[in-house]
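Field: sequence (string)
Field: structure_tokens (string)

Example rows 1 and 2, in order.
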Amino acid sequence: MKILMIGGTGTISSAITRQLSESGHELWLLNRGTRKNEVPANVRQVITDIDDEESVLTGLASETFDAVCEFIGFIPAQVERDIRLFRGRTRQYVYISSASAYNKPAASHVITEGTTLANPHWEYSRNKIACEELLMHEYRENGFPVTIVRPSHTYCERGVPLSVHGLKGSWQVVKRMMEGKPVIVHGDGSSLWTLTWNEDFARGFIGLLGNPKAIGEAFQIMSDEQLTWTQVYECVGNALHVTVKPYYVASEFLAAVAPAEWDFEGNLIGDKAVTVCFDCSKLKRAVPGFQATTRFDEGVRRCVKHILEHPKLQVEDPEFDAWCDKVIAAQEEAKRILK
């Protein structure tokens, strides 16, 4: 197949790029080239800003594709742009949405593609819903060949997946673990969550490309493994060979006292604080044999090893570190006063 990926070097898409490049497909990437040194040699790159439509049309010339995959479309205007650019130029347009678009809490903790889409807590999710609605309208009214994919918490070797951290990523939490400091865990740590290694996600995703059962449909791609958040943090501690000291704080309190730009209301109350178990049977019917095979304890060991070996990934966040200490001290003082 001849495939164009808009993006192609991110947490999710980098694994897809590697697997497609190794399997004989003709792969093109359209992005700004910020990680061009990580792109396999047999992948063709069009380095431009996707929002510069004239530049995109010049770079792609008259090329057509079996599939165009959009990894960096977050608002309806970007999807409208893609429809203009690729109508009549692709047999399939794959849009990466988000499982955070599902209603939280849903009527059932078992989430399927039919679970209601609604998220009053997170603008990011509401924008994804709006993009999905626009695309499905184009499919129904004009035959635009859309496939929607909803990932949940997919991770790779570049960052340890944790729930409470600042804008600079999770390294500061890892550093606190290594220093023996308490680390904040939302709620009481007992809600269930699913984390998916990006190489596993890629296999499910690639199985949808060129798949006639995927046109006009939405699919979620996740591991079948569910862990409590306490178990997630313990797995990270085991990979570091340290004992984690979890410090539990209500999600609502964290959202109320964190800087607004951290958006804990969306990230926690609108997503990670709610127990969800994903049913991927629809994907497995469309892609027979798909199975996520990487347990979280295995994947996070790879993360920790890679990050410890690459100091540039160890981005410190002193603002978040000081905030954690303040939150913990405040809750401890409240306990003392109320005793």
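Row 2 begins here:
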Amino acid sequence: MEKLIFALDMGGGLDDVMSWVRRLAGHVGVFKVGKEAFTRFGPQLVQSIQETGSRVFLDLKFHDIPNTVARAAEGAVELGVAMFNVHALGGMSMMTETVESVKKMAGRRELPMPLILGVTVLTSLNDEDLQRLGFTCTTGELVLRLARMAQDAGLSGVVASAQDVEAIRAACGKDFVIVTPGIRGLARVAGDDQKRVLTAEEAVRRGSDYLVIGRPIRTAEDPVAAADDFCREIARGLSAR
């Protein structure tokens, strides 16, 4: 359960979003608050989730000049989130300054250090998309380059496709945290825009530490049962390592 992150990427009102938190609390380990939810409900949503005793992954993918991202990261620390992320493509200076600022803020406020994750390559992008953007490398090559940079900058880990996990684990070691989105069950999700996907069991077997799952649970006939099924898949993946 602790390895399962449920994505609260939905509209509606705050009561509707919190109904999902109450429904799935005890069945997932962390609730992900992304741009859609945070833009609508802001810090109030984070606080409301925490009041249920649940942890929050603040998924805003900070990407700006170093000073701006460092100040935003300090705000994430003050919110008390368990983890948050930045775009590794923001560069080494942005990431190192963020890590330093987070350590200082956590120390001053006597708050626990959140996991700081670097977003590598979005799971909605493939090699062809990178070529259109002007990159001459593959998604796997770029992911590995960014993961190494994130580790050198002092980040806790990265967000990466399960297809890249084994290469990252080999390059960055067993203690480097890997959070994997784009997890799917056997049934295809309608309107899916993810391109580099894998099952929960296979992702964990390859070395993922946390799995971000949204639509496969949210659109299931029984979301709680679906979450429990994914937890069982995760357990099988861990036992197969």
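free_text_note (row 2): The CA atoms of residues 146 and 200 lie 24 Å apart.
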